[in-house]
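pasting for ref
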Amino acid sequence: MTITSKKLRRKIWLFVILAVLLAACLAAVIYLRPYEPDERAAQAMQSGGGITVTDAEKWMIFEKTAGTDQTAPGIVFYPGGLVKPESYAPLARELALRGYRTVIVRMPLNLAVLGGGRAEEVLAEDSGRGFVIGGHSLGGVMAARYAAAHPQQLQGVFMLAAYADSKGSLKDKGLPVLSLTGTEDSVLNKESWEAGRSNLPADAVIETIPGGNHAQFGSYGFQKGDHPAAISVQEQTVKTADAIANWLAETAESTR
C-alpha cells in the first residue's frame, strides 16, 4: 500500500468518525428536546395576585406575598423527565395559594435522574421548616428515591403519575404517601405502577382524577403517547392541588 493510499484511508475513516459523532449529537439534541411551558405556565411565573415568585438559578419558589405559615410544611417538587420546570408553575401557584411554600427544582438536562439529590440544598436553605417531597412522572420516581434515602429529613412523599421502585421503597420509612393518577393517562407504565404499590406503606393514600391524563399534571401541552384528557388542564391542576392540600391537612391532623 502506497503512502498516498494510506493517507486517503485515514481521511475516509476520519470523515466516517466525524459523521457518526455528528449524527449522535443530532440524535441527542432531538431526543433530549424538552417539553416547553405553555402560555398559561408563563403567566403563572409572574408575581401577583397575592403570590410572590422567585426565579433563581437552581429552583423557583412560589409563596404567599404576605408570608406563609412556618408551621405548614414546604413542598419540594421534582419535574417530569424532559419537561421544563416552568411547566409546573400553575400547580405550584395553586399550592402556594393554599398556604404551602412550593419549590420547583431545576434538573440537569431536565432529567431528575441526573439530579436526584438536589432536594438537599432546598432543605438546607430553609432548615427551620419541615418539608414534603413530590414529583411528576420520572420526577416522582426520583422524589421517592430521595425520600427513601433520607426519611428523617422529610414529612411525606407524593407522586403524580409516578411510582416508587425498589430503590425508592417507602414501605418501612414511616412517611405518609400520596399517589395520584389520571384515568386517561396512557404514558404511565401501568405494570410498573402496580408493582410499585408493594413499595408503599399500607396506609398510603391512592387517588385517581377522573378524566385527567399524564401531561396535564403540568402545563406543557399534549405529550406523545398520552390520551386526550376529558377535563381541562385548569380543572386537573386545581384537583391535583386540592388532593395534595387535603392529604397534607389529614397528615397533620393524624400526627397531632
